[in-house]
């Protein structure tokens, strides 16, 4: 069997405020998650030969990974969906300032591209090199972002473009993906860490 691990970063200051995008620091709860995750990984996974960690280049994933003892790689390709002109706004503010855009996104979330930003389709193409590597890797933990993890999970679990932008990716939870080499099956387990 082959196992991959995914986690969103711990709660960020922007998550607390309900703002999208940005490059915020972790909140105090987010820092607690970083401590719990490090304890979990260092005690259970850290001893697996070849275990490694990939994060985005944004502060919140790097801060989440900080105390994990494993080789780390930071990748721009794993940065969160670029929300363009909506960066730093709450969903309420987007609905108020850009009502037509807001409705268009609701109508076709996969193809909708934020003005001066990205769509889920753009993001899926951006993470393709990471996916190519993940298809042959074992014991990698990816610490990234909601939209990015939806793209990775959809590709690995064969979810279609309608489902992809709505895949449940809770905060403060390790998503463990086990692939059965023989049958080609894949099993997703959610491991919430209590903080
Ligand atoms: O709210 C956190 C966040 O990572 C935002 O930065 C990002 O725009 C959003 O999630 C993606 O989720 P959705 O596509 O559901 O808006």
TrEMBL record:
Homology family: In the C-terminal section; belongs to the phosphoglycerate mutase family.
Protein name (record): 6-phosphofructo 2-kinase/fructose 2,6-bisphosphatase long form-like protein
Species this protein is from: Daphnia magna
Residues of the whole record sequence present: 171 to 365 of 395
